[in-house]
Amino acid sequence: MSVITAYLLGLATLPVGGVAVWLLYRLFRREAWLCPYCLAWTAHTKEKPDTALYLPAILTWASVLVHGRTARHRAWRRVHEEYDIRPADPTWGFEPKRLMRAVPTDELDDEGQTYLLEWGFGSERNSRKEPVEMPYADCLFDGKRVEGDVIRHEDGSMELLVVRHSKEDPRRIPLFDGNAEPNPHIRPIGKE
Ligand SMILES: [Zn+2]
Question: Cα of 169 to ligand 1 centre, how many Å?
Fold first, then answer.
């Protein structure tokens, strides 16, 4: 083998090495994942489903797969699909990363529902309140069409903040309880 061939071969292994390092970094970097459907961390600290556990990414991805098969997740996913509600995701685009908790509060404004977001570890632990865009939804309430923004509560339950409500109609309608059980008065549009 000439010196030049050896040199070129050596050069060719560099990108492979780079890919390997990148792959190892991706697989073992600690990550957490909040499920926007049930508002629970897929891997959470003991007895605290609202607090993230950061695991090597390969374990986090595995726990996302397992989470997708749990009864609670499937129930929440089903109601989102049946009522055509886009899940609100408080982690989307949030900086800094390393979010530990995302708790919906009762504060509402034009931009959305305020969530209390906590991130960081130890002395770097911090929190702030951020508006999260509320999904828009419509459904039938006692056969009448109602629409508005969807408010999420800490236990996962949902309410519809009704727009254009008349005096006799409620301004807020409970949609689903904390176990994704729908209010018996509501039906999805098109399923009278
Ligand atoms: Zn879920």
Answer: 32
